[in-house]
Amino acid sequence: MKLKFFFLFLLIFALSFAAETGKNKAQTSKETSYVRYYKRKPLRVGVFGAGGGSFASSSDMNANMENKFSFALGGLAERPFGKNIFLRLEILFARKGFRARRQELIASMGEVANITNDIVLNYLEFPFLFYYGTDRRETSRFYGFGGLQFSYLVSASYVSNSSLGGGSQGDLSQIDNYDFGLILGVGADLKEEYFCELRYDYGIKDIYVNSENAFLEGKTFHNQTVWLTFGYKPWFWETNFLDFDFLK
Questions:
Q1: What's the CA gap between 46 and 120, in Å, rounded?
Q2: Rounded to 5 degrees, what are φ and ψ at 138?
Q3: Dihedral sign, CA of 195, 200, 205, 207?
Q4: Is the pLDDT of residue 193 over 80?
């Protein structure tokens, strides 16, 4: 009987020890993860690609605007400030644009032509983004973000076609060289070094300036883009040099 009680005591002791050890390991793992992600590796750099739809909003209620496929390629630098907050700087090449349809009376023919204008805008963009994320679970987390974006126009071109035949193409001189925008989005870190995001950006400025085109006169157009982004951002700088007191 005493032997049975002895083995029962050993079993209870072993289970208690295992539970306490598991708790300590979980706490240690959590602390190690915290140090790994926010203290020893304060800077991340990476690359990403994005694809989606680009269009323009117009003050002309009669304008028939359609979206076009757009894409972007770029790089980023990301710095955490605490467990849930981080800032990101990006630089990217973005192809945007839109399609505008309108009707025009051709006096010489006495007919109405359906005109289609495909606008292609290539930008070099510099977003500054503020991120707020959930606590990490293993190597994943979800987050929301927003920020500002400065865009420099690299080139602008158009292709115009008419339902009555003929057309034209060339560079657009009426496009403003600069644009400023607002960005909002949500995303997730996947498997520590990969991420996926859905973002929307809205151009604050009117993209047309000094227009000599009667169709554009008195109207405003603003860039808008919806992108699905995939990227890779490995840890780059493994040092305590940039640690702050609230990270310790």
A1: 27
A2: 60, -110
A3: positive
A4: yes
What tokens does 176 get? Answer: 């403003």
pTM above 0.85, yes or no: no
> Does 170 have pLDDT greater than 60?
yes
**Radius of gyration from C-alpha coordinates of the chain:** 28
Instruction: Record the tokens describing residue 233, joined without a space.
Output: 């951002």
Rounded to an integer, the average pLDDT of 131-144 is: 82
- Residue linked to tokens 């467990």: 83
Are 58 and 221 contacting, i.e. CB atoms less than 8 angstroms apart?
Answer: yes
pLDDT of 8 > 90? The answer is no
- Both tokens of residue 203? 């151009």
Q: Which amino acid is at 168?
A: S
Task: Give the tokens for residue 36.
Answer: 């790994």
More confident residue, 120 or 26: 120
State residue 150's pLDDT score. 96
Q: What is the 3-state secondary structure (H, E, C) of the chain?
A: CHHHHHHHHHHHHHHHHHHHHHHHHHHHHHHHHHHHHHCCCCEEEEEEEEEEEEEEEECCCCCEEECEEEEEEEEEEEEECCCCEEEEEEEEEEEEEEEEEEEEEECCCCEEEEEEEEEEEEEEEEEEEEEEECCCECCEEEEEEEEEEEEEEEEEEEEEEECCCCEEEEECCCECCEEEEEEEEEEEEECCCEEEEEEEEEECCCCECCCCCCCCCCCCEEEEEEEEEEEECCEEECCCCCCCHHHC
pLDDT in tens, 156-167: 988 877 666 666
Is pLDDT larger for residue 243 or for residue 151?
151
